[in-house]
Amino acid sequence: MTASRAGAAILLFLGASCRGSGSTLQVSGTVEIRDVRLAPLTAGRLDRLVKDEGDSVHRGDTVAVMSQPGLDALIGQRRAQARAAAQRVAEVTAAQADSARAANDLARAEQLRRQNIISQQQYDAYQAAAAGAAARLEAVRAAPSESAAASAAGAGALATRDELTITAPDDGIVLTRYAEPGEVLTAGMPVVSVGLVRHPWIRAYVGDRFIARIRVGQQATVRADAYPGHAFHGRITEIAPQAEFTPRVALTERERADLVFGIKVETAGGDEGGRLKAGMPVTLELPLLP
Is 69 exposed, middle or buried, given 0-12, 13-18 or 19+ CB atoms closer than 10 A? Predict the structure, then answer.
C-alpha cells in the first residue's frame, strides 16, 4: 500500500470511530455487563456449589451453600436461653404484684398498729413479708434485659446461618468460580462472579473537542450491526471527569495520541429482550448541544 493510500485509510477509520455532523455525533462503543462478585459476610466451609460457570441464575436463586461446625448447636443453646429468660420475665411480673400487695398490707398494718388493733408481733410479720417480696423483686429485676440479650443473641446466630447461603442478587450468568467445595473461606472472599446480563451498558469514548457539547442524562440512539434498521434508545449516565489517551486496543496509531473522555450509556429497555450481548460492537448517535 502506498503512503497516500495508507493515509486515506487512517482518515477513513478516524471518521468512522468518532464522527460529528453539525448536530449529531457518532461514536463507536462496546456493550458491557456488570460483574458482581458474590461473597459471604461470615467465615465458613464451602459445602457445595449449586451453580457453576456458564449456568444461568435468577434473582434469589441459591448459588452456594456454606456451613460452620457447631452453629446448629449454638442456635439451640441461644433458643433455650431465650426461653429461660422469657420465663424469668413472667416471674418479674409476679414478683412486682407480690411486692405491691405486701407493701399495701404493711401500710394498712401500720394504721392498725397505731390504733392498737393488731399486736406488734402481727405488724412485724407484715413488715417481714413486705421486705421478702421486695428482695425477691430485686433478685429477678434484671430478667427483662437478660431476655432482650438472649433474643438478640439468638437472632444473631440465625442471621449467621442465613449468611452461609449465597444467593443471586439478580438475573445473570455465572462467569467465574473462585472457590471449590471443601475450602474454608473468610468473610468477603468471593465464591463466584455473576454477570448481570439484564443490565448491560455501553462504553464509548468521545474526543475532547466534542465533550463540552454532551451532558449526563441526555438521550442517545444505539445501533447494532446485528439489527440493521433498528435503533435502541438510551441515555448517557456517566462522563469521565478526567481525560485519557485513546485505548491502544481500539484505535489507530495516530489516534492513540488524542485525548478522549470515556462515557457510559444505558439503554432504556435493559438488555432489550436479550438482543444486546456483552462484547457486541455498536454505534452511538449523540445529539450535540449548541
Answer: exposed
Helix/strand/coil percentages in the chain, nearest 5: 35, 30, 30
Q: What is the number of other CB atoms lying within 10 angstroms of the CB of residue 106?
A: 18
Question: In the 8-state DSSP scheme, what is residue 169?
Answer: S
- State whether residue 21 is helix, strand or coil: coil
* Percentage of the chain lying above the pLDDT 70 cut: 68
Strands (E) located in 90-211: 165-167, 172-177, 184-185, 192-207
Neighbours of 102 (CB within 10 A): 21
247, 261 Cβ separation under 8 angstroms: no
pLDDT, one tens digit per residue, over 237-246 is 999 888 776 5
| CA count, 13 A, side-chain hemisphere, 79 | 7
pTM: 0.55
Q: Are 61 and 167 in contact (CB under 8 A)?
A: yes
pLDDT digits (tens, 9 = 90+) for 31-59: 998 889 999 988 888 999 999 998 999 99
